[in-house]
Design brief:
Jelly Rolls; five-stranded antiparallel beta sheet; 4 domains; 666 residues; four-stranded antiparallel beta sheet; Beta Polymerase, domain 2; CBS-domain; alpha+beta; single chain
Length: 666
């Protein structure tokens, strides 16, 4: 470990010095103070303080310098003694799991803070914080920051909203309470008493009951926790589903042991009159997800993080429930508008990009299925079995905000000419209804008309098989383009056996098709990430997006293409980019050597893209994929360059594998 160099600036007794020296020292101190104040004026929540308050904060700050690779805070070490504000440089926050694996939780740059959760809890440090480059931090002592939080509502509200919700879920994995902190202007979190939303019916078992009996009670009542009481019926502990997983199942413990042996202590409680944000702070401080609610000295109920998440009705679960309750396209349309809000909520929570896209894909899938079910009711039973396919980003479960419709219909081969004609007429009207319904729900038409409403893309299974075989056997540029799109297909609704049959046909026909794979490799290798020879960003030189680069086309696009190519080579049937990578481990040398880097690149570029789009929407702009790299922090720039370099390295490997001549001949 490198030596930590500290530079601390304080007010010293200078009365014994001569007047010139006193003036010089005062001038030096005033210059430093002015610099600190100017910096804090750009950093929330300090920027919201009055000038006098800001000056007082700056007087209390110390400064520390951390050389690159310095371990600033160590997991399981002493709790942080100060809030650290990054003046220059950047840090990585990581966590070591029980099996010894290090998981990167976050990167933080200039103007961001760290150490608050540990400081508040006075517990062991939960994460490791390392300087990623030479860094300078301002330190505000524990006493000072706690006083600010207690006396300045703007400070406490900011840290509750911005700091906790951004990082806590990454550390503790189960605190899914993001939707509390963002939503209506009513600030329900700060105005709703705990007693109003706590679960009223408390399920309890005696402390001498067995673990099995407690688990049966939880299962019977469909709850995630049970209160443990003593012989006097007083609460002495709580057992949660997490306790069952970690203390019983993972350790192969006997379910006949007394439940008191696994209950969590001590019991933490709040008063029914306390506001919900106070319960949130208590749960964060104690790293718990269930809390007892007391009223007039008696047990009133139990509050869970799920209760808090549902407070404003903005959780993914509440949206899914709303979707299922609708019976018409007109009823679905207003609910679908709310789905985009989930992206912002999850983003501010600190969720991974892949988790965001998976939740959005699930909600969008439910919406599309609902439209299809409404269409089935309107048009009646189809003449033959059918399967609704999605492809593109929807097929890979990688949507963020609603993108163009990319869908198709594959239906069972008709048995007679009459059935064939009936199927054509039925699915023509059916597909048009669904297309228009999805437009009402915010899914724009595909400019290239890759939709089931196009007769080309609603065909019997035998026709689809013939199309795939033709594209593979005669790989024209158009065939390669369509393969890049359609081979990511995924069953969304209807008879899944049709999709399974088509996927099996595809994988069988790809075996030994080196020419097709070489030409697909050529298309994959030609779309290079925007990184110059000296690792400078290659941006647009003029036009609407001057000095910007396209994260989707030049970042996500080539990465997705690489993984698709490798998965088709390896005979992997998955369509999601990350699922493909996992399925190829042990089957593909490129993935074995660079799979982790590829995952990290995908997560980072995707998250950067989502951040950008959310900011645009909050500013009333239509979301796009163009960013100006000069507006990124140094840490973001460095990580983006590393991500692009991973893509370029794999593209170079593809060229080496197939040979420059083959790859360049498409």
């Amino acid at each position: 470990m490198r030596t930590l160099h500290c530079f601390t600036f304080r007010w010293y007794d200078i009365c014994s010095y001569n007047l010139g020296l006193i003036i010089g020292v005062l001038s030096f101190i005033m210059t430093i103070t002015e610099d600190v104040v100017k910096f804090l004026e750009t950093v929330p929540p300090f920027q919201f303080l009055e000038a006098v308050e800001l000056k007082a904060v700056s007087d209390d700050l110390t400064m520390e310098f951390y050389p690159k690779d310095t371990v600033i805070l160590q997991q399981d070490g002493l709790a942080s003694d100060a809030l650290r504000i990054i003046k220059k440089g950047g840090v990585k926050v990581s966590m070591r799991t029980e099996n010894g694996e290090e998981v990167t939780i976050d990167h933080r740059g200039e103007g961001e803070t760290f150490g608050l959760i540990s400081l508040m809890g006075r517990d062991k440090q939960k994460t490791t914080v390392i300087a990623m480059e030479d860094s300078i931090c301002y330190l505000l002592s524990r006493e000072k920051i706690l006083k600010l939080i207690e006396t300045k509502p703007v400070v406490s509200e900011y840290f509750l909203q911005s700091h906790f919700t951004k990082y806590v879920d990454k550390v503790y994995r189960e605190m899914h309470n993001k939707s509390l902190f963002y939503g209506s202007s009513d600030h329900l979190l700060f105005t709703t008493p705990v007693g109003d939303i706590a679960t009223k019916a408390v399920v309890a078992v005696r402390d001498d009951a067995t673990i099995k009996e407690a688990a049966l009670q939880m299962s019977r009542h469909r709850i995630s926790s049970v209160i443990i009481v003593d012989a006097r019926q007083l609460p002495v502990g709580v057992v949660t589903d997490r306790d069952l997983r970690e203390k019983v199942v993972s350790r192969a413990r006997s379910v006949d042991d007394p439940v008191r042996d696994i209950m969590s202590l001590p019991l933490v409680r709040v008063d029914a009159k306390d506001y919900c944000f106070e319960a949130v702070l208590t749960m964060i401080k104690h790293n718990i997800h269930h809390i007892l609610v007391i009223q007039d000295g008696n047990l009133k109920g139990v509050l869970t993080n799920h209760d808090l998440m549902m407070l404003q009705g903005t959780s993914p679960l509440s949206f899914a429930k709303d979707l299922e309750s609708q019976e018409s396209v007109d009823g679905l349309a207003p609910v679908s508008v709310k789905i985009n809000r989930v992206v912002g909520l999850l983003l501010k929570e600190g969720a991974r990009a892949s988790n965001i896209t998976r939740i959005i894909a699930e909600l969008n899938d439910r919406l599309v299925r609902k439209v299809l079910e409404i269409a089935e009711k309107q048009f009646g039973r189809p003449p033959v079995a059918y399967c609704w396919l999605s492809f593109g980003s929807e097929g890979r479960k990688e949507q963020t905000f609603k993108t163009d419709q990319d869908n198709a219909i594959v239906y069972a081969d008709p048995a007679t000419p009459e059935q064939e004609e009936a199927a054509k007429q039925y699915f023509a009207a059916f597909a048009l209804f669904v297309r228009d319904g999805l437009v009402k729900c915010g899914f724009p038409l595909c400019p290239a008309d890759y939709m089931a409403s196009n007769p080309k893309w609603r065909q019997p299974l035998s026709v689809w098989k013939k199309l795939f075989s033709t594209w593979i056997g005669h790989p024209t540029p158009e065939a390669i383009l369509r393969s890049l799109i359609f081979f990511d297909f995924r069953h969304l609704h209807g008879d899944e056996a049709l999709a399974v049959d088509l996927r099996s046909h595809l994988m069988k026909n790809l075996k030994g098709q080196n020419l097709f794979l070489a030409l697909m490799a050529g298309a994959t290798a030609r779309n290079r990430p925007p990184l110059g020879f000296f690792k400078t960003f290659l941006v647009e030189k003029d036009g609407e997006h001057k000095n910007e680069l396209n994260l989707k086309l030049r970042g996500i696009g080539p990465l997705v293409d690489i993984v698709r190519l490798l998965s088709l080579e390896s005979g992997v049937a998955e369509t999601s980019t990350l699922e493909r990578i996992e399925a190829m481990r042990g089957k593909n040398a490129s993935i074995d050597s660079m799979g982790d880097e590829l995952v990290q690149a995908f997560e980072f570029i995707s998250l950067l893209r989502i951040h950008h789009q959310v900011e645009q929407i909050e500013q009333g702009q239509a979301p796009d994929n163009f960013i100006n790299p000069s507006r990124l922090s140094n840490l973001e720039k460095s990580t983006l360059k590393e991500s692009f370099q991973v893509i370029s390295t794999l593209q170079d490997g593809i060229i080496d594998h197939y040979g420059p001549g083959m790859v360049g001949s498409g």
